[in-house]
Design a protein that fits this description.
Layout: H1 2-18, H2 36-54, E1 78-82, E2 95-97, E3 100-102, E4 107-109, E5 112-115, E6 121-123, E7 128-136, E8 141-148, E9 152-162, E10 169-170, E11 175-179, E12 189-196, E13 199-201, E14 207-208, E15 213-214, E16 218-222, E17 227-230, E18 235-238, E19 245-247, H3 254-261, H4 265-272, E20 285-287
């Protein structure tokens, strides 16, 4: 009976404990007269609670790893992403390159580029935890990846210097790096990406850099192929398919690529801004959907 009563006390303590803000969670003090087995149970539950809040969006992401910016994961059919309490990564407003396939460079661009000067302060877009700080000589240069409480991850690349370390918690607006020109870059700029479980999403869905504001308070992501009701039109909407690409191999032409994927040649021409006179290059990525 005494043990049963102690468990009730412990459960009440845990209920109080759960109402504490995530960043303020600490182990629950154990009363001196609490039985050992109940004390251990309380500490175990408190440890699990702390662990759950240590990793942002723990309910979405099955693992926490300090490598692999892009990876494959099973996306939810829909997810409401909270954009409140945001901070613009930079006060600069000039977008020099947009998200998506770039015909002139013949490859996809997974983020947007914003003009910055060397030494400009780059800030965390939302509260979260730094997942990666690394350097790629022929890629991102000095870069930072942050996983946020709202489910997004953001990438800040071509930095002159990183100001945070892996597994460090950050708040929206905290300085995380200095603008630069490191890695594969033709001039000082911030390459900024927004990802959801490894999938690149257009940052312009969330941030209006020219006007220095978020696009809305909450953005709802729908997986391609998902049906949902659109309140504005009053109709059911089916999300379009994700863009798909083909890497050109030796001896391939637009006609052979079109046949392989079952699409008209005209679709490949239109999606890639090319025509029948365009000479394909081995290794070039062509969008076919």
């Amino acid at each position: 009976m005494k043990i049963f009563q102690s468990i009730i006390v412990a459960t009440s303590l845990l209920a109080i404990h759960c109402r504490v803000q995530a960043q303020d969670i600490m182990p629950v003090p154990t009363p001196a007269d609490m039985p050992m087995e109940v004390s251990e149970a309380v500490e175990s539950h408190a440890s699990l609670l702390n662990e759950a809040f240590m990793i942002p969006s723990n309910e979405l992401y099955p693992t926490w790893e300090n490598h692999g910016v892009h990876y494959t994961a099973k996306l939810p059919d829909s997810l409401r992403i909270d954009l409140r309490n945001f901070a613009m990564p930079t006060t600069n407003t000039k977008v020099t390159d947009i998200f998506g396939y770039r015909p002139r460079r013949r490859r996809a661009h997974k983020g947007i580029d914003i003009k910055v000067q060397r030494g400009d302060t780059i800030r965390a877009a939302f509260d979260g935890k730094v997942r990666i700080t690394a350097y790629q000589r022929r890629g991102y240069g000095h870069y930072v990846v942050i996983r946020h409480n709202n489910g997004l991850e953001t990438v800040y690349a071509h930095l002159q210097r990183k100001l945070v370390s892996q597994d460090q918690k950050v708040k929206a607006g905290d300085p995380i790096g200095l603008g630069g020109n490191s890695g594969r870059s033709t001039g000082p700029h911030l390459h900024f990406e927004t990802l959801l479980m490894g999938k690149s999403l257009d940052p312009a869905l969330f941030f209006d850099f020219p006007n220095q504001k978020a696009t809305c308070e909450q953005y709802t992501y729908y997986k391609p192929g998902t049906r949902h009701f659109d309140a504005k039109s009053g109709k059911m909407i089916v999300e379009g398919p994700e863009p798909k690409y083909h890497k050109v191999r030796r001896g391939e032409s637009v006609s052979t690529i079109a046949r392989k994927h079952g699409v008209p040649q005209s679709v490949i021409y239109k999606l890639n801004g090319i025509n029948s006179k365009t000479v394909l290059r081995i290794g070039q990525s062509l969008r076919y959907q």
